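Tutorial sheet, problem 5. The two components below are modelled jointly, 636 residues in total.
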Amino acid sequence: MTVAIDRATGKRRGEREPRPGPAQRLKNGFHKHWYAYAMVAPVAVVLGVLVVYPLVYGLYLTLTDATSLNTARTIGVNHIDATYKFIGLDNYADILWGPTAYDRFWSHFLWTGFWTAACVALHYGIGLGLALLLNQKLRGRTLYRMLLVLPWAVPTFVTVFGWRFMLADGGVINTALEGLGLPTPLWLEDTFWQRFAAIMVNTWCGVPFMMVSLLGGLQSIDASLYEASEMDGANAWQRFRYVTLPGLRSVSTTVVLLGVIWTFNQFAIIFLLFGNTAPDAQILVTWAYQLGFGQQPRDYAQSAAYGILLLSILIVFTSFYRRWLNRNEQQLAI
Amino acid sequence: MSTTTVESSAPAGERRPVTAPGKVRGRNERSRGASLASHAVLIVASLTALFPVAWLVFLSLGPDKDDYLHPGRIWGKLSLENYAYVLQDTGFFDWLKSTLVVVLGTTLIGVVVAASTGYAVSRMRFPGYRKLMWVLLVTQMFPIAVLIVPMYQILSDLQLIDSYLGLILVNCTTIVPYCAWLMKGYFDTIPFEIDEAGRVDGLTPFGTFARLILPLAKPGLAVAAFYSFLTAFGEVAFASTFMLSDDKYTFAVGLQTFVSEHDAQRNLMAATAVLIAIPAALFFYLVQKNLVTGLTAGGTKG
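Model answer (structure tokens):
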């Protein structure tokens, strides 16, 4: 989804502003701010109308018992008015500790946590390994790089269907496994293997981004640092540990955060890989979608409540992450 | 991208003391074994990256819908029948049109609306600045589940379900803030001295932005446009929910129509997937150099 990595330049900026005399500063300040607000206005309006208003409306819906049966709708020429009621925080209570809360929320929550951790670890580990390999002087480097970026170049919704053909019972993966005398799991039917397959496909899709970003990071590390450390007698591992990793830190913290957000919110892969057939492999995002749009009657209120919970989880996570970075005096390049 | 090469970062398996006893190697040489191992790993990784796509292309050449189960039989009857069918007898061109309308609309709105904001947050500090940055950041974390229900209600009140405008607006919820972020990053790399020179010469901030910075920022605008394009192109959830009539499907939705509960025309699906993927991948490769630079420029220089 969204990509924005940039350096944090916040502090420096203030010093660069032109400094007129103190008497004029107020007046100029007003002008400066007036300009700033005028320039920010288009996005502020768009965000207000398209994000804040729906968010507030969604928040209101979570406090009601809205479903597709009692919201306002038009059937043919008849308009039926909404009849849903305000029920306070019941939806949240029901999701978090109502009967069967474990089966509906907590089991998906645990799986989503595991899914996010596993995918990001795999993305980062494999991405870093490949970036290190590609950062050597090597014949065919450009060709390798082009091939390795391929999963990123093809739209996800296309490749997922390719994976479905491969993972189907009797598809090429099981045929190959059979040929090797290995067991042939039901990738798209058995819960454990569904989860395994989901992580595998997401890893395949997500590695190129990490690889390219980390490769950029590696190439920005000053080569003289390596020379100096080598002069000091550092071996390859020590150079990796004390030069490469610190040099990658600002890129790493950023791509890991982005990776966590994207993986946590990864909708297309699980939705397209399994459709409605895998209740236990759904992560919270697809599960919320299923409540709101994948069943009859559609449970709008609960689906919206899941959405709010998901956003809260991400915001809490990001705040802690940033605080942890600040404590270690690292900067998030966001 | 820079071409600095770092020799010493051998993969985990190849770590060894720099000078093995008995032989002295120059700094820029690697052992033959390390080279071979690097190539081996990269070849395996490249094949893994390539295979699912290549397999899709291969399956698209088999005329039967169950050919994916017996790939061996495809060799005997390779044909482009699927492609002919998809192009002539399905909604392919309708989907193409919808996709282009939605994607170009979203990109245009995203870039135009976000440009001045990106500049403002890059150059100016004003009360509310931190809040705005926070909103832009948080918007990038929105799971689709947060907005999809209220958006559905609002759009149906406005009779915008199943309309291009509705989908464009919904896509803008993520694309606009993200373009603003991306362009802020790009504007940050343009020296502030240019602005100062412009001001000294009597330009207003608007004038500086429009006449000095925007022309310089064309590559940044292009990167933002490419990203919006690719993001909107790959968008699945909103498109699946808000587009109801099959001549308005985008590719992401249209492709799902080949598989219903009772029938799966996998051969046609494969052919359509290839028809979508090849131009998309070509486009990606055309712009990837810019994309990658735009992506990593800010993050790595800081």
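Marking note: Strands of chain A lie at 73-75, 78-80. Full credit if you identified this.
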